[in-house]
Amino acid sequence: MKLRLTIILIWVGLISFLIARNAFIPKLDTDVATALAKASEESFYGVWFQDKRIGYVENRIHAAGEGVFSLDQRAHLRLNILKQTQQIEMNLKANLDPGQRLQDFTFSFQSPFYSMETRGTVKGETFSFVTDTGGDQRRETIVLPEAPFVSTNHRAYLLSPAPEPGRKIKLPFFDPLTLSSRDTIVTYVGKEKVLIKKRIYQLHHFESHFSGVRINFWLDENGKVIKEESPAGFVFLAEPEFKARDIQDGEQGLLRAVAVPYSGHLPSKSNPKQINYRIEVPSGVALDLNGGRQQYEEGMLRITHEEVNFETGTSPGGGGCGDLTAALPSRYVQSDHPAITALAQTIISDSGDDFQKIKQLASWVYANIDKRPVIGLPDAVATLHSRVGDCNEHAALFAALARSLLIQTRVVAGVTLHRDRFYYHAWNEVCVDTKWISLDTTKDQIPADLTHIRLVSGDLEEQVRIGALLGKLRIEIIQ
Hints:
Low-confidence stretches: 1-25, 313-318
Largest sheet: 14 strands, antiparallel
Strand order of the largest sheet: 8-7-6-5-4-3-2-1-14-13-12-11-10-9
Distance between the termini: 26 Å
Shape: globular
Oligomer: single chain
Number of helices: 9
Mean pLDDT: 82
Radius of gyration: 23 Å
Strand content: 35-45%
């Protein structure tokens, strides 16, 4: 089942790079050097999930020279995934100028089946970085509109001048997923009493929105973050070191906690031609519910079984489906990597028909990737080397292999039914005879069954949109 969404939200919450866009709100204009000077200390945060402390975050910030501050954030997590406990380490080291803007950084992520390190520097408007996933090293240079702003656990700049409820502030933040600078909107809700572990605090409440995902945080009078709530039920509390380090084993797994219950009953037929759903989603969230086998209008969704003959037909290559990006390499779908292109040629060496190539690639991924939950970002080359992954890794690797053969292939994400709930999941769509056909290499299905509900289409930076649905998506099956 699906784990990627949860990890993206952990990343966003722990490292506090809160991203969103709104072009009509004035940017914050204040000197934050004083706030940074006050933040020159060590602090700890317990990471809570379902009333269990499952990890902690330690923050250190200090002056590292004239006009330079050094930031060190370390996150330690113990996550229960499908009755397996996995240890996670995330480390961020960064140098900031007095305005709390990024100069250079190193970010590393370690889990049992995944490791990644990204190093980057900012010079003027140019941002250069290299990402190493163990199996692949990729160098990139991009131009940013301005040096990105890095949020620390001290945000006194939000309290000066004294904010009025409803005040909105625009800040340029650095997005570690897309490695780009974007604007986030922070709204001051007001001062309120907050009960934390049997103690009442008077705190300043702020909301930040990231791709439709609402993140709440509360500051004391000095601007220190006392509490932060991230999607999927994670809570970060300022705690003494000895408490924060006291990690407890949670009984409940993460996947079921974010799963979507449903009402209604599936059709009695074993292989129905279509299924109708009533879907409730939050307003203002951009989703990809309509198109291909899905027809969506005013809350009603119909998914129709795709008729495709993989024995005969015209070639699915070329620009037949109109999405040229679905044939190009990307940061995590490295279809131009020599190991990917060589493997694809080996798999399809005995076939000259593109329909058979699709089947052979899908069968190879299904048979050769060990189906285990992997906490990390889905990376095709890393998956090829480890041969381990959940649905994310399967989808990324298949997309890379197919794109290397110039077959337009998308990674899509949504939910699929498993026993009594819909779970977040990822699979693929491939261009066949100018139509998108679904396939799931985790379940060995071509096409995917009709309980696969596509919510978004695109690589990782698009998939974070699902975060806005956590706890808000409603599904009813209609006969």
